[in-house]
Cytochrome P450
Amino acid sequence: MSSVLVLTASLVVASAVLLLLCTLHDYRKRKGLPYPPGPTPLPVIGNLLDIPTVESWVTYTEWEKKYGEIMSMQVLGNFIVVLQSYKAMKDLLERRGQIYSDRPVSPFFDMMELHWAIPIARYAEQWRSGRRALDRSLRQSAAVLYRPIQKAKAHAFLKNLLARPEDFREHLEHFQGAMLMAITYGYDVEERHDVHLGKARELSDLAASTVLPGALLVNDLPFLRHLPEWLPGMDFKSLARHGRVLAEEVVNGPFNFVKEAMEKGTARPSLARESLRESQDGSQMAERDIATALGSLYAGGSDTTVSALSSFFLMLVLYPSVQKKAQAELDAVTGGARLPDFDDRANLPYVDALCKELLRWRMVTPLGLPHATTEDDVYNGLFIPKGAIVLANSWAILHDSSLYPEPETFKPERFITADGRVKDDHLLNVAFGFGKRLCPGRHIVDSTLFIVVSFILATFSVSKAKDDYGYEIPVEDEYTGMQLSQPVPFKCSIVPRTEATKGLITDVIATE
Ligand code: HEM
């Protein structure tokens, strides 16, 4: 036998023994219990080829029939669990929140030293204290204080829409950024090229573009971060350094603005001012923790809300009858003589229900944000290892036709009771995630959607745009995105409903 043949045979035997040992070790670790079912993994790459890349939540929902309420896959060393039933989501992400509230490790975010950023922070002390601060600042009763700011920014948005209706998506982004900066720091952004808003946007875009599977090799092969920078393909190292500097600017820039304004006695009400005052009054919160917790809000709150409001424009184009019905309800309350206000909400059940349906119909985060486990666990006889990435398929709940008949159709009526009141549907909360990681911005979202939606309905008429020959331009009900889903850019016509409603936009409104 040639030596090459001997070497090959030895390698094959060694690999087989290694595989057997790993399998035995794995079997012992899970005490013979099975993993949640799923597609059969291939050697080395596991289920890499099975993972759906387009509207994965729809595929997962179909797989539920085959694999049941909890399934699993293995991809390049990651163990992924998908929860498909409300019960499994509540049981694990809430009732066992102690071990299901971590986030997956991201080598690139580690290199950017983003461990302080609440949405991606590991389940550790820094996240806990930052999260406590956000929960205190953004609780329902505190969110009410920021309504005048929301109204003022929503009104400025209407003016921008009147001036350049074709750029509605850009105006939405500006509105949401301006509102978050004003609520968080009492800071009024410039209409164009604002330095703080620009940096927050850049950081958010950098994080979103690098988190996607396959976007950066270092996230799949973490050892690459230890190789020297002069090697080809190591550009991510300089990108991480740039991201680190940018992140510090995002955290410190607007925060220092508030501190200086407080020293001068000119600071306006804001989350930062109130948190700093509390810390000066003896709260345990360190200044750096306040700054980083607040620095996380733009990342969590900008693209999410913009996606929901973009879906609102899409819905108006696709469902003219919903638009008419909502406008009739608003006109009956305001007489068309003023803009609606938060106090009108109780008399606007259809508009209120429309906002709920918006969160259900085209979900912003159909799979939420990934959780991760900090310990091995057993659920219904199935073994879930420590470090597993856990996705909750919330879309499957809110598009279950036995709970929401004709789930793909936009129907605000489904949230209205027989006697005309708005239903309190607890299932809708899944749009904001689960347990300890539940979205802290949900009360701000609630008031933002209501005020922007009712302002637009009161003043504008939205329909299909026409081409140069007067033919309507078709609009596709199509969405992009992996983690965060948003409508594919589309054109529409946005015109003031009447001269009188145009006047409501151009008039100065009282916001206090
Ligand atoms: C339509 C708008 C929004 C939707 C649908 C949404 C949804 C979500 C979801 C699904 C999560 C993950 C929850 C989990 O891991 O279980 C989340 C987390 C988060 N959201 Fe929102 N969100 C929205 C707007 C906002 C706003 C306006 C803010 C800030 C004012 C915000 C701040 C955050 C933060 C900081 C986290 C991370 C929480 C943590 O990891 O502890 N979100 N959001």
Notes: The beta strands are 70-75, 78-83, 371-372, 377-379, 382-384, 389-392, 460-464, 479-480, 486-487, 492-496. The first helix runs from residue 3 to 29. The chain has one domain: 56-506.
